[in-house]
Amino acid sequence: MVVKDVITWTSIVVAYSRSGDMRSAEEVFGRCPVKDMVAWTAMVTGYAQNAMPVKALEVFDQMAALGMVVDEVSLTGAISACAQLGAVRRAVWVQEIAERTGFGNNVVVGSGLVDMYAKCGLIDEARKVFDGMQEKNVYTYSSMIAGLASHGRASEAIALFEEMVNRANVEPNHVTFIGVLMACSHAGMVGEGRYYFAQMKDKYGIMPSADHYACMVDLLGRAGLVDEALDLVRSMTLKPHGGVWGALLGACRIHGKSEIAKVVAEHLFKLEPEGIGNYVLLSNILASAGKWDEVSKVRKLMRKQRLKKDPAVSLFEGRDGLVHQFFAGDNAHPRTQEIKKTLLELAAKLKLEGYVPILSSIVYDVNDEEKQRLLIGHSEKLALSFALLTFGSGCTIRIIKNLRICDDCHLFMRLVSRVESVEIIVRDNVRFHHFKNGECSCGGFW
Ligand SMILES: [Zn+2]
Ligand SMILES: [Zn+2]
């Protein structure tokens, strides 16, 4: 093309970011001679949708610094980025911009804010935004219900669902039911879960997807009905995905069902050959049942597959609003020496309170000393140590973790919340854990 205008350039940026190639999108954006608001917005949205939230907020900042007008789309991108990061200070800042630019009453922006605050661990703030919204649609309700569910506030979630369908006359969709079933599951409400699962199809004509089955399996499994959960999976007409089998494997761990676990793991190994978490979980279950021969078989399998550990990462928003990243066993943080020193002192203090590291959380074939060394380097512990270092006792600490929290870190957090009188909120890949006075909101089931 001889003449390329900003629309042409922006279309290419959008096309690259939709195909997940942000590097090429960046390059095209860089070469675009005149950038308008739509072009900048395309970059914010692209980064947010491709799970690069830090970049999304950087570009959003640049837009603001250049005095660009923000619209519903760029705001939604920034809101989604804050939700992914769980960054509270940034979240408040984005809400201020939304209100200042006249999008405070926009239903799309508002629904995003509800989701954002819930994912940042500020569930009451999410509720405040929700209650203040004049117009609410199915996305607004679904975000609020899912938020309440992930924070373990099941009865509130169910009450809101009833209000939605009976008083507000908003028709639920498949996303709404994920939230409702999740709420039932986290609270062990088996009867209610069965009721809504049936109602979804019979009353609203929504065919359950594999995700809904995963919620039901989780619900039955947590409640100890592992055999029934297995029957449900076997009765499925659609093909169960990794989430369904994964929920069942989790239930086998909680209730020590090593025989069912072996069957379930076979399916998972086929569906997710790279997923090391499944091997770890199975070998933990077998180890708890004392089946050491089989544990070593699983370990051999892991070595044969040359599985690399999923990179565990924890995020923590510092005083300055900067998001600090911690990887397991990482020395990259500029204050790594202090962080480690604080952590070792903390562990020593907890040991006086009866803390014994849960070595079975490490499945590698290494000696106990090495296991202790690996455990103390878990990413959420590094983030916690940095938080205590910079905020001190008596504060609320919010940590975002990309994987399931391990038994040892869970115990560690519980004890720290008591010994240091801090409230710790950890978001792992499924739910929130609120640690306070030595207890966790999940009640030990996660
Ligand atoms: Zn851990
Ligand atoms: Zn917990």
Automatic annotation (TrEMBL):
GO biological process: RNA modification
Pfam families assigned: DYW_deaminase (PF14432), E_motif (PF20431), PPR (PF01535), PPR_2 (PF13041)
Domain DYW: 354-446
InterPro entries registered for this protein in UniProt: DYW_dom (IPR032867), E_motif (IPR046848), PPR_At4g14850-like_plant (IPR046960), PPR_rpt (IPR002885), TPR-like_helical_dom_sf (IPR011990)
Keyword field: Repeat, Transit peptide
Molecular function per GO: RNA binding; zinc ion binding
Keyword match Transit peptide: yes
The keyword Transit peptide belongs to this UniProt entry's keyword annotation: yes
PPR repeats: 36-70, 106-136, 137-167
PANTHER family to which the protein is assigned, alphabetical: DYW DOMAIN-CONTAINING PROTEIN, PENTATRICOPEPTIDE REPEAT-CONTAINING PROTEIN
NCBIfam families per UniProt: PPR (TIGR00756)
Descriptive protein name: DYW domain-containing protein
